[in-house]
């Protein structure tokens, strides 16, 4: 008996890898600085209709993320302390432990990261410097672009 197929349906060497997130990331970002007033950052979030943004230092290193959820602490502090807490700085409210990814990660890997976390976005870092950001919506856009490819 010969179990060799007459032809391979698809040569495994011809299978194209999924595109990397750098093809779908946003490069022009709204960013905050650690010493920026939190009230100013909150105004930017509302005005630009974004739910959060990276925080970078003067060298362009990612040092945190500031989200709407982080800013809700101000509302609670103001109520509890009975005075406006809006004079604080971004560094006082930002999330410092940030999960970032590299630009060479493929869109399927990142889709899995989103599926298994509550994150809405991941900052993309190369050699310690923030170079972009990828969101859930960016990954959905990749899925539409790849609709002819089997996921």
UniProtKB/TrEMBL annotation:
Residues 25-81, 94-149 form the CBS domain. It holds the Pfam family CBS. SMART domains: CBS. Keywords: CBS domain, Repeat. The keyword Repeat applies. CDD domains: CBS_pair_bac. This is CBS domain-containing protein. The lineage of its organism: Bacteria, Pseudomonadati, Bacteroidota, Cytophagia, Cytophagales.
């Amino acid at each position: 008996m010969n179990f060799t197929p007459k032809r391979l349906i698809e040569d495994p060497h011809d299978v194209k890898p999924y595109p990397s997130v750098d093809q779908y990331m946003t490069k022009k970002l709204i960013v905050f600085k650690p010493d920026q007033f939190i009230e100013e950052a909150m105004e930017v979030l509302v005005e630009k209709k974004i739910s959060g943004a990276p925080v970078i230092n003067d060298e362009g290193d990612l040092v945190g993320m500031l989200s709407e959820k982080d800013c809700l602490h101000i509302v609670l502090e103001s109520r509890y302390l009975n005075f406006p807490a809006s004079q604080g700085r971004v560094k006082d409210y930002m999330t410092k432990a940030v999960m970032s990814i590299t630009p060479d990660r493929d869109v399927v890997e990142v889709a899995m990261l989103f599926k298994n976390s509550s994150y809405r976005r991941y900052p993309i870092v190369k050699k310690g410097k923030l170079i972009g950001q990828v969101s859930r919506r960016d990954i959905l856009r990749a899925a539409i672009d790849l609709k002819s490819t089997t996921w």
